[in-house]
Amino acid sequence: MKKTKAEIEQIIQSMSPAQKAGQLFLLAYPGKDPEVIRPLVEQYGICGCYISQDNAQTFDEAETITTKLQTMSMEKHGIPLLLGVDQEGAWGVLLPESHPGPGNMALNAIEDIEAVASMYGIIATEMLSVGYNTVLGPCADVNSDPSSPIIGTRSFGEYPGQVAESVSLAVMGAKKQGILTCLKHFPGHGATSGDTHREIPYIDKPYDALLSSDLVPFKAGIEAGAEIVMTSHIRYPQIDKDNPATLSEKILQDILRKDLGFSGLILSDSMNMGAIRKTYDPAQSTLLALQAGVDIVMLSEEHYDFKTGDYLSKQLRSLHLVEEAIETGILNDSLVTDKLMRILDYKFNKMQVRTPRIPRQRFQEHAQIELGLAKQAVSLLQTGFWPIPPEGEIVCINATPVSSYRNMVNSRGIGPNQEIPAFNSFVHELEAYRRIQIVSYEQVQEKEASLKAATALIVVTEDYPLPGEDFMKQEQQQLVQDLCARYLGKIVIVGLRSPYELALYPKQVTYLCAYSSRTCSAKATAQVLLEGSLQAQQNRTPVTIRIDESEFA
User: Fold this and answer.
1) Is 253 exposed, middle or buried (0-12, 13-18, 19+ CB in 10 A)?
2) Does the annotation mark 269 as catalytic?
3) Which of 197, 233, 303, 366 is catalytic?
4) What are the tens digits of pLDDT across the range 404-453?
5) Tens digit of pLDDT for each residue in 302-326?
6) What is the C-alpha separation between 309 and 332, in angstroms, rounded?
7) From 214, 269, 305, 463, active-site residue
8) Can you tell me the distance from the alpha carbon of 393 to that of 409, in angstroms, rounded to the nearest whole number?
9) Active-site residue flag, 470
10) Is this structure's pTM higher than 0.85?
């Protein structure tokens, strides 16, 4: 299938304006039947598809849809499709069959940093075995703002050097298995409390500050061989006062291409996110992105519009506008040809379409490795009441209001997050070894007698990155503070999340952190709790732990 430069040039010359336009788009589609996107594959020869849990829930379903999609494209155009998935730890696909691992922040907490390469190797192996040939990860964002609602545990942490090392290992681990990797969200999304699914955030940093912080992991990932860089819809006014990164020639051409030396594919974050659609005409912004330096425009957020039925019209409007721009020269021929040369070179010469299906016993091995890594990541960040007494009544309190779980898996769920809350997996593992009493957020007041009588209180907090929405955290934290004020001497807080919340709690309270809300992390944390292990204290911390100095009576 490999093609020479001359052969690729010949293919480009034979393309119609519609087909040239199509190769510049990565599109989502609804449901499990790829026939709905056949017209765009055949008429426009689109670059590929963004695949979510909505399209396939099992490995068998995934193999079926990728086979159909690739057949559509190859029979009509002879060009394979790029099929990208957000298998990046915090979000995932093919759940619960796949093994996305405990997530980036958890992996970065493990002393043996080779764990990152190992986990990303598993991710790549599983995805490529069913034809998902591109993983839209790792996140190269430095999570320097603890209040970030959308990055958090998707990031490896807040120290640029550590993040860079982990990003490099993730890229190399995945690439070794043959999958394409994508660094995101350039030039960094971790220094903002805003969410680009809702608005355009601002990061008021000069270029020199970016060079020593946010850009460090991207440089490392590029040097490790990442094939794709995804842009962010964030404005950096000290670099470009008018445009967010996705639409900024200064950021994409001067910084990414020239300064960082990136020669691969530049992919936009979805052009239908709130940051774009609330500020720009989505179709017009597509044109601006291509002119600024984007090679492939992604419309993954279109799947939020599936229920309203107008997603296809939005996709077609953008396709038509780009087709017209190619015909009229608004997008000049040399610019388009350069993009197509890069895209087709990767498709024919650097992209594997798929590898053979994995034997079932390999999945058991992956599950053991995933659980083992999740367990290594668990950290005892504050020690007071530890270990849990071997005898006596244990009450396990869910600090999350039950209503908050409704938005874990909904029309806005990209991956989505797993359907079963981390708390459920945690208590299921505990109950297998020890008798416990479970108390929900809603039951705390009525179960006051049980709390007083208990030998130990385990209070579980969670957090999930939800695009465009919020998981209830303030309610959790208020409950934990109330419980600490009354039962400080017998509480263990289990954070199935990042540890930033620790700043709100007293320094005497015991805090066991998983850096993750994944199922494997919930199970692993329960095991560490039961074992009373102190080894977790030897872990490196991916973020700064800010301790509350207040005293509780």
Assistant:
1) middle
2) yes
3) 197
4) 888 776 654 444 568 899 999 999 999 999 999 999 999 999 999 999 99
5) 555 666 667 788 899 999 999 999 9
6) 33
7) 269
8) 34
9) no
10) yes
